[in-house]
Amino acid sequence: MRHNHRLAFVGASGVSLIAIVASYGTFGAGTSGASAVNGAYVPGGTLQVSMGSPPESLDPQSGYSSESQEADWLAYTPLVTYAHKSGLAGDTLIPGLATALPVVSNAGTTYTATLRTGLKYSNGVAVKASDFTYTIERDLKVGWGGDSFYTSNIVGAAAYQAGKSKTISGIVTNDATGQVTIHLLAPYGAFDNVLAFPSSGLVPTGTAMTALSTNPPPGVGSYTITSVKPNVSFTLEKNPLFAGFNIPGIPVGYVNAVQVTVQTNADTEAQDVLNNTSDEFDWGDVIPPAYVAQVSTQAKGRYTPETEAATDYFWLNTHIAPFNNILAREAANLAVSRVALQRLASGQITPTCYYLPPSIVGAASGPCPLGDPSGNGSFTASSLGSPADIALATNLVKKAGLTGAPVTVWTENREPFEAFVTYLNSQLNAIGFKSTLKVVSSGVFDPTIGSAKVDPQAGWGEWSQDYPNPGDFYLVLDARSIEPVNNLNLGYVNDPHIQSTIIRLDKVQSSDLASVASQWAALEKYVDSKDYQLNFGYESVPFFLSDRVDFATAVFQPVFGDDWSTFELKG
Amino acid sequence: MTLDGTGTGRVPIYEGGVGLPVVPAGPYTAGVGPHRLALRRLRHNYTALFFGSLFLLVVVLCLLAPVYARYIAHTGPNDQHITEVLNINGRSEDVVSVTGVPIGPTWHSRFFLGADADGRDLAVRLLYGGRTSLAIGAMATAVTIVLATILGLVAGYYRGWADSLISRALDIVWAYPVYLLAIALGVSLATGGISIGPIQLTSGSIFVPTLVIGIVYVPYVARPVRGEVLALRERDFVEAARALGTSNLRIMVSEILPNLTSTIVVFVALQLAHSIILEAALSFLGAGVQPPAASWGTLLSAGAPLFTVAPYLTLAPAALLVVACLGVNIFGDGLREALDPRATVRAGR
Fold first, then answer.
1. What is the pLDDT of residues B203-254, one digit of tens each?
2. Residue ranges per domain, chain A?
3. A-chain residues near B306 (CB < 8 A)
4. Which of A13, A68, A271, B57 makes the best surface tag, with the fewest CB within 10 Å?
């Protein structure tokens, strides 16, 4: 998922200062109700959740951000879904509305699944197999952000989106038997992960083909989304019908309701959870440096950093100067200290030179081509012959004849991203480039840098998994992702070796990924040797809850984050 | 009231009567020009002089920023030392800790006031930031004064449709709260820059906030100037010039403008303080000076989230901002009093 916009500590404003001061007045104030009682954990109650950034839409066929998906995956269960478990176990696919995981046939081009019987939407309407076709059609009509997952894989999906057909010819359903058959254009090993997107979560046939952001459609899930006030708040109310479906592995939920409030000030957010006036710190935010020590001491037993499959990197535009020159890219890589960047992220990233996070099959290990990333920037650089990173980088820039070459580095105006790029800008200037920092408002950052007209030279990027598969991460290095607008491949990397490898490995079924792990790892080493992008950190995210929540049983789900259906409150 | 004719005696303003204050006699004012008289008054306003000196001290310190950076702190304003370890009194300390908290004041040449969250020397950035803030303040004031004086002169002198046109245009600007207008303009221009014919300003240019600040304050100066011109144009010396066939432009420049000097001088001082504060506000909100350039506003903005663990990041720029603005404001007040012909004459030698 491109640029997880939730990793931020926002508080750089007078409002934050006021909020800090004001929040001191609420110390020890606790929420009304359950939190005051030091009893056992019991089902019921209302979970108070802070969300750092608002979801762009809670309609499952419209919302693509992690904020949207965190809520939607509890309200819109697809044919397959992920286990409600922490750690690597949470990456496992389990049957959702289907009776079993899809059967793959015809050399990986046909997926067949059968709906469970007796399923009903939250409004009481019975679920039909043909609703699946309608749901995918709605994804394409409403314009879901990841619609290319469908159009580039399902037979007839692109034609439907282009208005050339009335339905998606590659999806065949039988309402009588509940069977759903999907024909693919070519084998795509991660297609079962595509089926697990909340956007594949079924909605009734006839639902409006427009984004229902303020009044999301009915779905099949443990909760239903209600009372949506865009950019302010929304509620998840328990779906009384869901318990009757007895779907194994999908909890029916403990709390009666989840009240989600957008709180863009990370200082206030942290203070609220410390004071138990909010039950959850948004895992997409970074705990501000001012609160790191306080959280570690005051919130022992209810805070832990969780590893997220997400990597921070600087993309370097390889089709224009100066980063079309490998020496310039090597110089940039040498000039940047991963440890410095780790500190700019309040210690909440793990230094790296590789792209694939450790939890993803194919993640590379062993020494980085440029040395140890945790070496304070002093790479051993054995392959390049000098341990002096800045001096060596400067020489490389000179050798390339690029001293004084202008570079503009791009970032959005949120921390720690702005700090990351400010640092990159400083280091590029230190090694001889004439670098300028360009700060763009968060709301327009992605469209701006993704425009071919802007054609930016370098900047901050982050990829967090859409699904646990190396192919998902390699979308940003896939030449097919280069687009005139909403470009994903910001480095404009078009390397025949990468292309042929991706196309070959993308065909491998998720269940067989381990068999090609070494090939993905080899690709990682190859990409690193070409310095196509400057990878610098694997993200860890805060799993930080109030005293009211049973921390021992609460799940941090690696794909969707905090799993509210596993949160139980004190009675 | 008596004048002794020597120019050195004291002039009693009030004499004798019960209930009336007796003011010590001042020096002779006969034959002394208004500007010299003002200077005499100002010389005896110690409060104004003290605060004026304070402002001057801040200006000098900021002008010396490159010297401080090069010879004392040994680092530039944008140089980051995130992973550097300092030896402070035999103790090793990270410039930025592993959890992202910067080092506090060392009271040594390096990182005298500590570091910011990006590992940059706060004292160096404070001085460089001061240069930026003061430069923007001064240039914006110049823009305001020049534009306002021209508009006020033309409107007040010509009256009629010219006055109506200019006054209504000023009213439109006036109708918007100055901060809201500045933020709106600042946000749109700070990211996109300005491109109007030959005027090409990139988004990071300090001339963008300069122009924004300069323009939004124009009505606040132009209207009083216009009022004064309306009065001046009816005076005998203007009538005389007109009778002699002097052109309108010449009357405005040679006859009216010199009589506006006192007003303009006072506005310059007061406007400078306003401009510096508005720059700080805009930069604080991200609509003024763009990173990584420093200004007092950007420093305040960067320090605010760390207030509980590193209050000096906020307090240091705030203190300089207060000192500079208070200094120039109180000095401006003193100047106004000194230039006011109706002010109590207490001019000494």
1. 778 888 898 899 999 999 999 999 999 999 889 998 899 899 889 899 998 8
2. 56-212, 307-541
3. 288-290
4. B57
Q: What is the CATH number of domain A307-541?
A: 3.10.105.10
Q: Do A267 and B191 touch (CB under 8 A)?
A: no
pLDDT tens-digit series, residues A67-119: 899 999 999 999 999 999 998 899 999 999 999 999 999 999 999 999 999 99
Q: Is B8 exposed, middle or buried (0-12, 13-18, 19+ CB in 10 A)?
A: exposed
Task: Evaluate whether B48 touches B333 at the Cβ level (below 8 Å).
Answer: yes
- Diameter over CA atoms, chain B: 83
Sorted by where each begins, the domain ranges of chain B are 32-72+133-349
- CA neighbor of A137 nearest in space, from A85, A199, A54: A199
CB-based burial, B229-257: b 16+ in 10 Å, e otherwise: beebbeeeebeebeeeeeeeeebbeebbe
Tell the residue number behind the tokens 């207490």, with chain if given: B346
Closest to B305 in 3D by CA, of A416, A381, A462: A416
User: Rounded to an integer, what distance in angstroms lies between the CA atom of residue A235 and that of residue A31?
Assistant: 17
> Cβ–Cβ of B304/A17 closer than 8 Å?
yes
**Closest Cα of chain A to B180: distance in Å?**
16
Residues 6+ apart with CB under 8 A from B327: B51, B52, B53, B54, B55, B56, B58
Q: Is A56-212 a domain of CATH 3.40.190.10?
A: yes
With 0-12 / 13-18 / 19 or more C-beta atoms within 10 angstroms meaning exposed / middle / buried, residue B342 is exposed
ipTM of model:
0.77
Chain B touched by A67 (CB under 8 Å): no
Q: Which of 345-374 (A) contact B at CB < 8 A? A: 345-347
Spatial separation of the C-alpha atoms in residues B132 and B120, rounded to whole Å: 17
Query: Measured between beta carbons, which residues in chain A are less than 8 angstroms from residue B124?
Result: none
CB-CB: which of B117, B191, B204 is closest to A289? Answer: B117
To the question of domain B32-72+133-349 being in CATH 1.10.3720.10, the answer is yes
Query: What does the longest C-alpha to C-alpha distance in chain A come to?
Result: 72
Of A292, A337, A422, the CB nearest to B118: A422
- Asked if B96 lies within 8 A of A13 by C-beta distance, the reply is no
CB contacts of A17 in chain B (<8 Å) are: 304, 307, 314
Query: Are B119 and A340 inside 8 Å of each other by CB?
Result: yes
Structure tokens at B21: 């204050």
Indicate the angle between helix axes B46-63 and B34-43, nearest 10 degrees: 90
Cβ-defined contact of B96 to A339 (cutoff 8 Å): no
* Set of chain B residues whose Cβ sits within 8 Å of the Cβ of A342: 98
Indicate the pTM of the whole model.
0.80
Q: Which of B75, B78, B81, B83 to mutate to test the interface with A (most CBs of A within 10 A)?
A: B83
Q: Does A159 touch chain B (CB under 8 A)?
A: no
Q: How far apart are CA B187 and CA B207, in angstroms?
A: 14
